[in-house]
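Researcher: Quick sanity check before group meeting.
Model: Go ahead. Protein one:
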Amino acid sequence: MKILETEIALKLNTLFTVLERNEHFFNSPLHVHPEFELVYVRESFGKRIIGNGIEPFEPGDMVLIGPQLPHVWINDEMFMEGRADKRARSLILYFHPSILESGIFNLQEATAIRELLTKSGSGLSIHGVTREKVVTLMERILVAKGFEKILCLLQLLHELSGSADLIPLNAEELINHERGKEKDRLCEVYRFVNENFRTDIQLKDVSRLTNLTPQSFCRLFKKRNKIHFVEYLNQVRISNACRLLLDSDWTISEIAYNCGYKTISNFNKLFKETTGYAPKHYREVAKTGVVMDNKV
């Protein structure tokens, strides 16, 4: 099962819209599309994969996803098995990049919005008061008609572009010109990891790319990304393993070794800790939508 490439604008015959979803569980596969997507989870919980980032989600979770960034929401087993007393409910805004071709977005006053949408290429988690304001605007778009919908979208983008409540979800896409030297150092690390995660990556080799000692490198990486380097490396490996489970017929062993794991037992353990599923179970659920016994 390949990563699904779709186009929301064609499917819905509109360049932007807000949809409400109310399902037993979120059943979209890992997919990409050319639209920007803003997702607010009203009910349910589980794990979400956005780019190389794998994190838990719960009610209130909100993220902005840029075009062609792979993503999927995987509910906890209790939803997929029908044991949950609640449903999977979300509010989703889609808008196509062609909207930005309007001359208004080329004005100097729209600089902050253009920068926001560039940063969304890494995925952005939205928190605090900003999230509350954005939910209100999404709900207004849901019922608005005519040009009022456009005004609400512009206001929503304005709120996001001026907010400090945004957190990048994928470190390799971070853009921060004010931290140029430190960012440039880590860019080499992100590139190295993405090109070599299949091999045995040693901390001393990675820290050498930044001209720092291993201890100083670890402090810098944790400061910038809020996670340890080893956690980031595992996220990249598991994210690629998820794609191979969906996009290939390789065995679990072949996928484990291809993603840099030396033993199957370690791969199975880390995969389940990260996604909540054993690799075989993850593949079966993603391909068929039928929940199997969660065994390796």
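Researcher: Fine. The other one?
Model: Protein two, sequence then structure:
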Amino acid sequence: MRFAQLGANDATTQLVKNRMIQESVILARAEFFSHAGNADYVRKAPTATGGTNRALDADYADNKITPAFELSALKIFGGKVQVDRAHNRRGTDLPSYRATELLNFAMNASKNFTDQFFNGAVSSTAFNGLEALVTEKISSGANGLQLLYGNDNTAKKAQQEFLQLLDELIATYGPDVLYANGWIIGFLSNIARDQVTVTMNEFGRPVRMYSGVVIENPGFNASGSLILPFDETKGTAAGVCTSIYAVKYGERTDLTIATNIGLEVVDHGMVENHWTHSCEFDACPMLLNAKSAARLEGLWK
């Protein structure tokens, strides 16, 4: 199920959910599943192999399967919005001000959730992001691949190598969506203009597709830092590389996000000197099939 289907249906919760979905390419597209309690064991992708020949009067070799499970350890993500009651004494339209600040919080929270979805490192309070979860990779070479503009042989060769690697990523893993930063998407749009199509989503924002696969930009976190920056290392290309992620989502399969009840928005009223909202949900991204997320690494400019 999608993020929009989770949580309460009151007007405030719906407004917050819609704002978060609008600002996050992950919350707009990822598949969630719900379970009770703090954690759950979820069956990973089947591993049975087989299909071979045997001799007459002979048996096949043993093919014993032990089911594999992944633990979904839910982590709490959210925060609170506090507005000092003194604003009311100074003529502020307090209900409007609280609503505006709550939606601004939702926008920034969704950006930080997206950042954690890619770059998070597991701790007692945080979950692993794709950078830590993904084991399937396509390499762009020992020292990465420099992406060059131009018509000379060196630039053309780099462009062709890039498109070949991207096509390999898609053909190998069959993703629903690709994630890359804005520079990479711009470079792809320029060198493969006939293969990139653009439509508008329900929020009036452009959605690009390459070879029939959506390619999206995770953008910035709430602090204004790129979520997929050029800061990775590949061989001698130190701290200047980035990756393209290929993802296939599923509900309780492939790449999925565990939760319990979804988003919870609570108006606590006056708490000491502040009118207070809390906004949070429990989540844990889970890669249940290793081939449902992969990355093309080592791209630099």
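Researcher: One line on it for the slide.
Model: Residues 94-119 form the longest helix (26 residues).
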